[in-house]
Inverse folding.
């Protein structure tokens, strides 16, 4: 199971994430005081091992701005957390992870329109992810789930969905990060024989 650790800001953060088994590192390019510096990100990206990829996180930002940051930082993929449409995603020219927070028939129809590398299920009510939705989403591509703070809920979500990956956000302390990753691996082991049936 792939692990994405989001909120990487320094080379030390990246090293810590990689040492815990992360294969995807998330850099926040949302507008605000915690926005990553594309030039610093480029230096981190240059040092990444071949099996790891850098993902830039954006939300409803101008296409030219996102393209500029992609070029300057050297990131391999973008995560779109806003209301971006499929045409916007296709115009970026890199791999796209599209985030969805509501799971209805309409959102599934929207999901099918995206030619995404992966889909991030980030429900507003953590733990409320419908396994039937996950089953449908698997028809369209890789499915990731956003890790909740409650490790018991995380285990339940992994058990229900058997996702391609898990997105861990906002965890910087080494002990807490290690605990969350351990919970992911334990849930993966406990449910490795379970398969999500595509309906």
């Amino acid at each position: 199971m792939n692990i994405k650790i989001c909120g990487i800001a320094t080379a030390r953060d990246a090293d810590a994430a990689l040492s815990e088994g992360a294969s995807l590192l998330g850099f926040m390019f949302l507008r605000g005081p915690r926005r990553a510096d594309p030039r610093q990100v480029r230096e981190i990206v240059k040092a990444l091992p071949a099996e790891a990829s850098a993902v830039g996180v954006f939300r409803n930002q101008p296409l030219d701005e996102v393209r500029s940051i992609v070029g300057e930082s050297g990131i391999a993929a973008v995560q779109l957390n806003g209301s971006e449409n499929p045409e916007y995603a296709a115009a970026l020219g890199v791999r796209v992870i599209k985030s969805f927070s509501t799971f209805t028939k309409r959102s599934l129809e929207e999901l099918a329109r995206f030619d995404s590398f992966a889909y991030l299920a980030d429900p507003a009510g953590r733990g409320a992810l419908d396994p039937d939705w996950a089953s449908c989403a698997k028809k369209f591509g890789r499915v990731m789930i956003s890790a909740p703070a409650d490790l018991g809920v995380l285990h339940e979500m992994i058990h229900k969905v058997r996702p391609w990956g898990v997105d861990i956000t906002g965890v910087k302390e080494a002990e807490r990060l290690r605990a969350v990753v351990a919970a992911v691996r334990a849930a993966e082991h406990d449910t490795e024989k379970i398969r999500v049936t595509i309906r």
Summary: The chain has one domain: 2-190. The mean pLDDT is 85. Helices lie at 11-19, 38-46, 63-73, 86-91, 105-113, 131-137, 151-161, 174-190. The chain is about 40% helix and 20% strand.
